[in-house]
Structures are given as structure tokens and as C-alpha cells.
Specification:
Rossmann fold; 9 helices; 186 residues; three-stranded mixed beta sheet; two-stranded parallel sheet; alpha/beta
């Protein structure tokens, strides 16, 4: 699809801005790794399932920051090339457990018991994948959790001067609160 968009922009038919970012999370967002794989919405987490192989970094993006980035790019769209692509740095979880440790701190700071960090049950996904298309697709994308893939945002910063970036614990606390995952909210 991206190739066709680029070809259309080269013909002068459309202008295209592509923004790439890590795995999304944010207030009310339920179709993502955080809320579907790592924790359960509506419950204060007793455990946090970490999809990354031990020590493997992973990139995440907070949806309000992604939206702010898109709006900022749209505000200057006439100054951008007809086909423009940008990467967001978002949050780099250097060892695959930093997000989990941040969630632990947030739950504790709200009076909850520190959740345990556990490995994501990939073995279970592999067993069930032959019977479920979504699980098959998860297995196809597992490589993103087995080796570090990190997008750099230099081009985005060159154009905008900065990248919108909410502090990680603020972003996670807002997300957990909206999902009913903080003590007193579940």
C-alpha cells in the first residue's frame, strides 16, 4: 500500500505523510499489546506478562503523542515533500522489562501490591495458533519481540524541532487509570 501511495504522490495525485511508531498504548486503547497481552483491563494487575525475550529492547508509542505529532506535521504539510515518512522514537524499553517495572511503580504508588513480572506465554500462543488467525498473526510478528528493532526520529526532529513525548510514568498512569487497572478504579 505504501508503494502505491508513493507512486500516486509522484504522479501528483495525492500528498502523503507516513508516521511510523512503536507498539501503541494510551487512554481507552484496548487493541494493543499492553492491554491485550501484558495486563488485563478492569483489573489491578497481579502480574505483567512481558512479550520480549529477556534483555531484548522494544519500542512503544503513547497515542496522544502520536496524535500530536501527526497534527504538527499536518500544520506544516505544505512545506513537506509530496511523499514524506517519519519515525517516532516514543519510548525505548532497553531490556524488555522497563515498561513492566514502570507499571509496578505506578500500581504501588497508588496503594496496590507490586505486580510480578512474568514471561509472556508464547508457548500457549503457538499451541492455539493453528486454530485462530489472530494468534497465527501474533506468531508471525513475534520476531519483533525476539530482536531489537529501533526507529530513530532524527528526520522528524529536523522537521518539527522536537517530538511530542509525555513522561513514561505519566503516560502509563493515565492509560492504566482509563483501563480500570489502578487500585480503587478496577
Amino acid at each position: 500500500m505504501e508503494k502505491r501511495l508513493q507512486e500516486a504522490s509522484e504522479r501528483g495525485n495525492v500528498r502523503v505523510i507516513v508516521v511510523r511508531a512503536g507498539d501503541f498504548f494510551g487512554p481507552g486503547a484496548r487493541n494493543n499489546w499492553l492491554s491485550q497481552g501484558m495486563i488485563r483491563p478492569g483489573e489491578v494487575p497481579a502480574e505483567i506478562r512481558l512479550p520480549s525475550a529477556s534483555g531484548v529492547g522494544h519500542q512503544f508509542a503513547y497515542l496522544p503523542d502520536v496524535a500530536a505529532t501527526m497534527i504538527a506535521l499536518l500544520d506544516i504539510r505544505d512545506q513537506l515533500p509530496p511523499f514524506a515518512t517519519y519515525h517516532m522514537a516514543g519510548y525505548w524499553d532497553r531490556d524488555g522489562a522497563e515498561i513492566g517495572r514502570a507499571i509496578q511503580r505506578i500500581v504501588e504508588s497508588h496503594g496496590g501490591k507490586k505486580p510480578k513480572l512474568k514471561a509472556f506465554p508464547w508457548w500457549l500462543i503457538r499451541l492455539a495458533a493453528p486454530f485462530n488467525e489472530t494468534l497465527r498473526e501474533m506468531m508471525e510478528m513475534r520476531y519483533l519481540w525476539q530482536r531489537a528493532v529501533r526507529m530513530e526520529n532524527q528526520q522528524l526532529r529536523n522537521v518539527l524541532g522536537t517530538e511530542p513525548n509525555t513522561p513514561l510514568e505519566t503516560a502509563l498512569a493515565c492509560t492504566l487509570n482509563s483501563l480500570g487497572c489502578l487500585p480503587g478504579r478496577a
